[in-house]
Amino acid sequence: MLLKEKLSALIPQEREALKEIKALADKKVDEVKCGQVIGGMRGCKVLVCDTSYLDPYEGIRFRGYTIPEVQKLLPKPGENDEPYPLGLWWLLLTGEIPTKEEVLSLEEEFKKYAYLPQYVIDVLRAMPADSHPMAMFSTAIVAMERESQFRKRYDEGMTKAEMWEPMLEDSIRLLARLPLIAAYIYRRKYKEDVHIPADPNEDWGGNFAHMMGVENPEYKNLMRLYLILHSDHESGNVSAHTGHLVASALSDVYYAISAAMDGLAGPLHGLANQECLKWILNLMDHFGGRTPTKEEIEKYAWDTLNSGRVIPGYGHAVLRKTDPRYTAQREFALKYLPDDPIFKTVSNIYEVVPEVLKQHGKAKNPWPNVDAHSGVLQYYYGVREFDFYTVLFGVSRALGITAQIIWDRALGYPIERPKSVTRQMFKELAENA
Ligand code: CMX
């Protein structure tokens, strides 16, 4: 496999490079303030992640490339299409923009594992009809743990240096199936349990759109874009950090990604896309289904804040400007659905809410994040079941987390184990500092 060959060549160099950092073991890299610990470790530099970096004012760079650069440089199925999401996975893993041939080799490798075993279907069907799609998604993933090559090789006594190989194998097998699992959940829950077989001629991203049942080339493009945008956001966010933490105990990819999905399912993280479209549609309903004026949006936003709720899709723990993932989706909307009334509402909200949040004076970042725009695009193409939206996010996020944890094993990072002290000890530490 071309990707494995590339990684086999890269890993020894990167292990050597890590030795230089290990030699600096006693050097200070950060000072941690009391407020940071009590405040969810905000801003503490305690994680290392090479797949992407999130600059507060510039937004995400995947291996140094901005979103517009990635859109321009990664190979595409056709001239006017968005890139292959698996090209991004190659980039995250290797740091290099792949050739089309390299991406197509990965597409072929994925196709070998792109089937849904009957036992996974049975597990999903056994879950009560009102189970949340994210609970179903996470359950299906962990159910497949029995197939882990990593666990098998661990039981056979593989060395630490070999661990990245079965991690890569498991990741490919899992990622190959995620769109099938997600589409199965979608069609079981919302489309009368009628399922659409994979199309062997489609790429990983296009096939996902096809199996969801939206036969529209624009939606396939949207899906490719979506899968790229939501993939990686360095490693401190809840889902990526959970994946890293769980995998640090040498739990395999199935355990790590299932746990990561449980974190993504929280309304302050990935579930915000579901909450956000709900907020927008409630806002429109409140004004008789029409696009509300900016004054009306302002009042509605204040009502939300005054009732003690957050405005979903706005704010971020790291970002301090409009999320470039929001901007990329806005550009897609301007191209394909400029006159859609919900998109117009999203645009008006963008002109009003940052000012409201500034006046409100609490949120450190009044600007929109990725979740403020993703729902309207799905809704436009007919995917209108909000509680499914986080599953779409999850399929994409698994690209980033698997890339991160394959490298965790390649570099032999240890089990994560920070120190906790009692609240009293912590107070004394701060008082005596
Ligand atoms: N609406 C109202 N209040 C907000 C707010 C928003 N959109 N964003 C932040 N605040 C509030 C916080 O709740 C906090 O209030 P308290 O002091 O009463 O607890 C205060 O402003 C300070 O928060 P912060 O330091 O600016 O933000 P945090 O790093 O604590 O939280 C986030 C970041 C994303 C959880 C928060 O902005 C939020 O709840 N946003 C809405 C939900 C959302 O869009 N989440 C998706 C994020 C992207 C993703 O992970 O998918």
UniProtKB/TrEMBL annotation:
Alphabetized PANTHER family for the sequence: CITRATE SYNTHASE (PTHR11739), CITRATE SYNTHASE, MITOCHONDRIAL (PTHR11739:SF8)
Entry similarity comment: Belongs to the citrate synthase family.
Class in the EC hierarchy, top level: transferase
Gene3D superfamilies named among the record's database cross-references: Citrate Synthase, domain 1 (1.10.580.10), Cytochrome P450-Terp, domain 2 (1.10.230.10)
Record keywords, A-Z: Acyltransferase, Transferase
Lineage top rank: taxon: Bacteria
NCBIfam families reported for this sequence: PRK09569.1 (NF007128)
Catalytic activity, EC: 2.3.3.16
Name used for this protein in its record: citrate synthase (unknown stereospecificity)
Gene Ontology terms: biological process: carbohydrate metabolic process; tricarboxylic acid cycle
Gene Ontology MF: a single term: citrate synthase activity
Organism field: Thermotomaculum hydrothermale
The protein's annotated pathway: Carbohydrate metabolism; tricarboxylic acid cycle; isocitrate from oxaloacetate: step 1/2
